[in-house]
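Worked example 3 (structure in, sequence out).
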């Protein structure tokens, strides 16, 4: 654990390589840093409610034991979900464990209060960050395979 609380990168690396490890809460500063502050260059896809980033773990833990891990970090659009919906989604993902279903590694629910200008007035505003973290699947979208298959038959 980080002295300020939360999982460190090394712990995350070990977790990625341990298939029995349970999904955990991940600190926003860690995910933000790993995703290079959500650089456009790391975007691998967009869905109806999130942008997905490919995040490489640069092995800090013993390289002899671990390869670098790769994650898909899904950053939800700011306005998309209410708190109960996000919680429901995380609960549901935590229960699902199957070889044919992408592994869910963790989630992040972070709210920070920022002072910003709103119509000429300085106001305190909540900035919410909601992220879901999965193992990275290298072979593209299933949707693409199904579409190609349907065209070929
Ligand atoms: N675990 C993953 N590994 C690799 N690529 C992924 C992963 N998850 C998502 N992607 C990529 O990001 C794209 C968007 O994914 P996302 O799950 O946000 O949306 P979707 O499943 O296409 O649609 P919806 O918004 O209905 O969930 C996918 O089409 C895929 O290309």
């Amino acid at each position: 654990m980080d002295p300020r609380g939360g999982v460190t990168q090394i712990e995350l690396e070990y977790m990625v390589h341990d298939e029995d490890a349970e999904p955990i809460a991940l600190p926003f500063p860690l995910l933000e840093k790993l995703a290079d502050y959500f650089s456009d260059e790391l975007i691998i896809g967009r869905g109806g409610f999130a942008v997905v980033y490919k995040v490489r773990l640069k092995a800090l833990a013993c390289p002899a034991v671990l390869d670098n891990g790769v994650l898909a970090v899904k950053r939800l659009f700011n306005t998309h979900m209410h708190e109960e919906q996000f919680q429901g989604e995380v609960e549901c993902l935590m229960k699902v464990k199957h070889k044919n279903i992408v592994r869910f590694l963790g989630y992040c629910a972070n709210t920070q209060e920022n002072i910003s200008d709103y119509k000429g007035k300085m106001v305190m505003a909540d900035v919410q960050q909601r992220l879901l973290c999965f193992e990275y699947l290298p072979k593209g979208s299933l949707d693409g395979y199904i579409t190609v298959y349907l065209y070929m038959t």
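Notes: The domain at 9-152 is CATH 3.30.200.20 (Phosphorylase Kinase; domain 1). The chain has a mean pLDDT of 86.
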